[in-house]
Amino acid sequence: MAVVKVIEVIASSEKSIEDAIQNAVNEVSKTVRNIDSVFVKDIKAHVKDGKVTTYGVICKISFRVDIV
Q1: 3-65 has CATH 3.30.1660.10 classification
Q2: Over 21-33, what HEC string results?
Q3: Is 61 helix (H, G, I), strand (E, B) or coil?
Q4: Rg value, the chain, Cα
Q5: 0.70 cut: is pTM over it?
Q6: In what order do the strands lie in the sheet with 3-13?
Q7: pLDDT score, position 68
Q8: CB of 15 within 8 A of CB of 57?
Q9: pLDDT < 70 positions in the chain
């Protein structure tokens, strides 16, 4: 039987939504193994002077838990 845990993280990027998602995975990967999937719960963009300056995402990242 597999056990899967889900954590919610917020990440951002000045480049794109895809880059913000990748930043979330990169950061979580530093301390979590066995990442299976990312569910993008929400997308946000900050605007300054009529231009998008930063993309933000709220992601649910799921990973398998090793049972000993």
Answers
A1: yes
A2: HHHHHHHHHCCCC
A3: strand
A4: 14
A5: yes
A6: 3-13, 51-65, 35-48
A7: 77
A8: no
A9: none
